[in-house]
């Protein structure tokens, strides 16, 4: 039998001890984690709110005692906006133009008093709403009942001279502006204390939704306008008067979710028809 050389036994023992030590530490960690989670004093669920849910700051957003704020009620502007836009989503997958434009009219009325940047961002949208309303109620109204019927009617102009397809171009511009409105409302609703201010978040939303389609001069003007953007607390009070902060945040998150549903439906219809870059 060979005799073990000095130093061989400690090295062999060390190679066996390292995996055992790691395994033991893992067991200790799992035991401690289970003990902490089961104690009821600390949650082991990942932190952070899921999309379109308000960050809870003083209890559940919509607990058993939560009452729907007036801004979502029959006379509330946010409630009117949501109902009009929801009604535009036809069961067969189209978008009804009259309801869509009614929602936009209320949205413009809602955001214009909130500050110059909202008036700036919605000024073009207001003009496009007027242009589309003239078509919806004009001599060719039968062809402007929905997004689908409008695009079918304007298909020859879209193929030969896109700029002449006034209804489709107006719809596309409104579609982009709706994306900014939805992102801004969502970020005002879900922004956390200590995080970026509402002005910074809505400016970022402008950079995502509208800036790529604006000239350099317009982008600079928008940047200056965002410097005077109201603070989050002020916006919540203006957008949902009389409501507590958690209620106002929940109301805005609901409204933003409705706008996202309409945006996604319109985005799909425009994409199917190759109209996302019409203007």
From TrEMBL:
Q: Can you tell me where the transmembrane regions are?
A: 12-32
Keywords carried by this UniProt record: Membrane, Transmembrane, Transmembrane helix
- State the Gene Ontology BP annotations: negative regulation of interleukin-1 beta production
SUPFAM superfamilies (UniProt xref):
Glycolipid transfer protein, GLTP
Q: Name one GO cellular component term.
A: cytosol
Q: Which GO molecular function terms does the record list?
A: ceramide 1-phosphate binding; ceramide 1-phosphate transfer activity
* Pfam families the record matches: GLTP
Q: Where is the Glycolipid transfer protein domain?
A: 95-240
Give the InterPro entries listed for this entry. GLTP_sf, Glycolipid_transfer_prot_dom
The yes or no answer to whether the keyword Membrane is present is yes
Q: Which family does it belong to?
A: Belongs to the GLTP family.
Q: Output this protein's name.
A: Glycolipid transfer protein domain-containing protein 2
């Amino acid at each position: 039998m060979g005799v073990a050389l000095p130093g061989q036994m400690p090295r062999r023992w060390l190679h066996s001890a390292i995996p055992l030590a790691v395994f033991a530490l893992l067991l200790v960690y799992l035991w401690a984690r289970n003990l902490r989670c089961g104690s009821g004093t600390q949650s082991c669920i990942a932190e952070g709110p899921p999309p379109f849910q308000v960050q809870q700051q003083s209890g559940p957003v919509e607990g058993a005692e939560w009452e729907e704020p007036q801004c979502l009620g029959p006379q509330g502007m946010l409630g009117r906006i949501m109902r009009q836009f929801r009604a535009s989503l036809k069961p067969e997958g189209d978008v009804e133009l009259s309801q869509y434009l009614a929602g936009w009219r209320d949205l413009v009325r809602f955001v214009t008093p909130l500050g110059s940047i909202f008036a700036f961002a919605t000024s073009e949208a207001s003009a496009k709403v007027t242009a589309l309303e003239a078509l919806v109620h004009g001599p060719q109204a039968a062809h402007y009942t929905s997004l689908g019927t409008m695009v079918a009617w304007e298909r020859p102009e879209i193929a030969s001279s896109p700029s002449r397809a006034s209804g489709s171009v107006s719809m596309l511009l409104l579609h982009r502006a709706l994306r900014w409105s939805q992102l801004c409302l969502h970020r005002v609703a879900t922004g956390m204390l200590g995080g970026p201010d509402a002005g910074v978040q809505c400016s970022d939303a402008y950079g995502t939704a509208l800036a790529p389609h604006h000239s350099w001069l317009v982008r600079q003007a928008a940047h200056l306008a965002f410097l005077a953007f109201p603070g989050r607390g002020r916006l919540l009070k203006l957008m949902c008067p009389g409501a507590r902060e958690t209620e106002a945040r929940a109301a805005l998150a609901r409204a933003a979710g409705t706008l996202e549903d309409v945006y996604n439906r319109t985005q799909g219809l425009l994409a199917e028809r190759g109209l996302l870059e019409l203007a």
